Amino acid sequence: MTNNGNNGINANGANTTITWNNVTSNSGSGIYVNGADITVSDNTATNNQHGIYLNNSTGTIQSNDLADNQYGIYLSSSSANINFNRIAGNNVYGLYCTGNGIVNATNNWWGSNNDPSTNSSNIYNNGETLNYNPWLVLNINTNPVTTTNNSTIAVDLTHNNAGSDTSPQGNVPDNIPISFFTSLGTITNPGYTRNGKTNATFSRENVSSGAANITVALDNQSLQTNVFFDETPLAIHVNPIGGLYNRTQNVTLITIDPNGTSITYYATDGSDPLVNGIIYSNPITLNTTTILRYVAVDSEGNCGPQYTTTYIIDTTPPNATADIKGGVYNSTQTVTLTATDNIDPHPVIYYTTDGSDPTTSSTLYTSPITLQMNLTTRTIIDLKFIAVDQLGNMGLIQTETYILTLSIVNINNNKTYSLIQDAINDNSTLNGDVIQIYSGTYSETVIVTKKLTIMPVSNNDVTIQAADPNHNVFTITNSGNGSIIQYLTLNGNINLQANDCTIYMNTITGNGTSGIITSNSVNNAIIYNDITCNGFNGIQTNSSSNTIYGNTIHDCVSGIYSENSNNKISSNDLTNNLYGIWTYNSTDNIQFNRIAQNTYGLRNDIGTVNATNNWWGTNNPTNPNDIWIVSGNVNYTQWLVLSVNASSTNSGGNSSVTADLTHNNQGEDTTPQGHVPNGIPVNFTTNYGTIVTTSYTVKGKATTILNLGSTQNATVTTAASLDNQNVSTTGFISTGTAILTITSTAIDNSTGQPLNITHDMPLNNSVTWLSAVWINTGMFTDELQVIVDGIVVQDKYFYNAAYTTWQYSYSTSVFNAIIYANQHLPFISSAELTNFWNNLTTTYNLTSSELEFIQNHGQEFIDNLTVNIVYPGVAGLNLTVTDPHSNVINLNFPGNVIQRTSQVIYTGSLGEGVKSFAIATTKVTEDVMQYWWNQYSSYQTGDAMNVAYNTFLTALMIEYIHDRIADNITTPLNVTWSRTSPAIVSISEDPYQIYETLESDHSMRMTVIGTTENMRVFNFITSNSISFIEYEVMNSSATMELLYIYNNYNTYVEIFEENGFIIIKSLMNDNFLVIDPETSIVRDIDTVNNLYGGYMNGVDVQRNLGKNISL
């Protein structure tokens, strides 16, 4: 029925069967049905508006071929079983459902093996209940895969996507054409389905050998398979073939053996596979250059041809270099790139000049690259290039940064100059600009007439000498007020005629006149300069209200010459001058300077100066060598004295010795007022063990490491010498002891009094494990175990006093309710409180009077338990700071006294609470860590010992990682460190909180020896790393929370200075970061919980242990 103006078949009525019809090219429906219990099967409907249309009908649609219609099947308010149909290539929808109905459309062929719903033109459903899963899939099978002549290719549509054989239930229509194609030989084509299957025959014809690629296509699905053939029996096909490859290859050997009884042998070392061969069973993995030999042997012992195939596996990338390295250049540069490779003689290079990473789509290098310089502005070119060999191996991206510029740059406008003066004079240079200078020696006499910062480019060494030896290098006029000169080496002087300037960290040498001259200028800061070998004075001033601080001045006539001045001169190192300081008619304040090894320490004419609390090179300064009062008055009644102190604690074989310049001759601690310069070398000796002979002052003290060689007690004499003073001390050094005290409001069963126990722990080992664990044993009764190094050294039972008072007045359910309430109330908000009490009443069947009792007396059933440890060490840093909002905060950092309190609520768990401490007296080495890690199986004997060991090990891991970081940076920083008193980290877990915290200073009780700057870098890295280690362990730390707040809410973080410290404070949670700018030690603190680490609520610490080890 074809080409009808409406429907091909129009059926109205019930129990109609429509079968074996061919309906094509009808403008309406191929088959239109309106009735119940209709059967439509084995029809072919193509090029119709609707292949089959069911309207208000029920029935079965099965084994129909519905292709190339606008709609394959259209259901309007109909229910049907639609199975084993071919529904493919229809232009709008294969199946369109609208209205109400139930449709089972499983096991149909939709033209592809893919989920039919992924193709929007397959199925549309609006309101019907539709199931289309599973669906039929096309499969292919080859038999045999290897042949000497022919092979059969079988294709079937008798399985669905779930893998089930659907043949017993039905089949797709017969005579569906399936196409077959081959790359070699011939194959019968097409095939037509019969009961859902069809076959095709492959023949090699006149082709002697090869691998034929067979393609099977039906509708939108194609499948491929291979037939390997050879006229020679037992021939072997290899895939991939031999050649050059840039990655590991998995080689498949396919033997031409239709009977499937042969065995294939292979060798990868080039030897005879029949002698040294391996039986082939799976693909052979080749990851290096290989000579592969292989042969097949049939069941009768006949051998096929023996093959040799060579695979060159080249995974080595080529390398590219530039003949001109990145750097600073003052002319146009032409750069030649060269690539080399281990195999490819001509690897290629791709490059970029805009800073982006090169790819094979970037510019191909063919000739030298010209980098053009601009004579007026600085040009920065990031040349990035990569070499690629013929196999596609790509080398590392190489980067060379070229700065094409004149030597002087105004970084604010990027203009460049040949002379510093030209940069200053340029009208485009404005007040506040920064002039940077590239490495080199410059000869100029510079007049600064604007407020500028003049400095080297970072990591560049700049020397400027006066163009005329009789003139200055720099003259800063009063129009240059507020200028900064820093980090320069000057052969000449600075003449300062301006106010509010900073002369910082310059080296001024050999100029034949004064190094820095201030002329009628005020409020300047001359700090941390190194001035030497000047023919006159290091610093010469006739000005007032200036700060001269931290300078090192030697080999001058006068280190500092002050005339008609009133300045603050402090913490300068003045040695080997004729006069350390010469004051003339001045009223300077001179304190905390090192004035030693000069002919005259201080000369004063006419004026009155305060020269108290200086170090004169001796504990007994004399007149006139140290203080020469020509006329006028000098107050020097207080001077600093050198003392030496040796720690009395032997910490794992090491101790510390400290030379102290923080007290004066009257016994006053001068630390709050200031200190001598950092970096003064102090020499040490000992009569026992060995000692690091030289250490450097930091904040008035120099500390060194005394290695005693063992932990045995000894009487030791140590001495320190500085300038003309030697001091010594003799003391008894012994192994330290930590004293543990545990107190509680709970009642000790054995005494009837509040719990109070003590235990002394000799710290003889590198690491000591201490845990206090409390374990519930019954209703409001607990057991307390004190564990030292895995041994229970004290075992106490205690109970809650309130329970003994009330236990006979209320039922057990009331006390269970109290335990539950005490466990959860701290986490209940006020808005949730009423609902909480209602739920508690219902759960425990409480009366109103019982609930009232719980509300009024529940807290009496909680006891406090306090762990207190006193151990050898130094007191913690205590700061009182006032923030910008006038809030006064006490910051108390950990020291040699530990006090931690938990609440005991008698929860009924076997391990209710634990406080574990890892006490390290030495460096925690890998051997120490491994020893304790290996004890794991020994301490899994019960919940209490298990949790004690795991929390201790977590604390120890923090110390271990910290010490690993410290060791890794000692060599590059040229420092030495040892732990000279115990460092402690603790983990605490109780029903209310879990935390990790330091219990010793953030220095981790390390004595560090090195130059002042290197020690500062070392201290910063090691102390700052603690918070990041804690974050890995606890997923929380004060520093990390501060960083998070700053990154997301930076207005909630404020920075201020207090007591010489830089304070960073969070306004959201009162976390603090405290940085000591002189030692660079970073300390963090959570002031809410009084912790110096990570804090969590209700999480099990033990689960982090594996994560720790991975660090």
TrEMBL record:
NCBIfam families in alphabetical order: para_beta_helix (TIGR03804)
Compositional bias segments (type: Polar residues): 661-673
Pfam families: Beta_helix, CHB_HEX_C_1
InterPro entries in alphabetical order: Beta_helix (IPR039448), GH29D-like_dom (IPR059177), Para_beta_helix_rpt-2 (IPR022441), PbH1 (IPR006626), Pectin_lyas_fold (IPR012334), Pectin_lyase_fold/virulence (IPR011050)
Compositionally biased tracts (Low complexity): 650-659
Record Gene3D superfamilies: Single-stranded right-handed beta-helix, Pectin lyase-like
Organism, scientific name: Methanobacterium subterraneum
Record field: transmembrane: none
Name by which UniProt lists this protein: Right handed beta helix domain-containing protein
Domain GH29D-like beta-sandwich: 242-303, 325-398
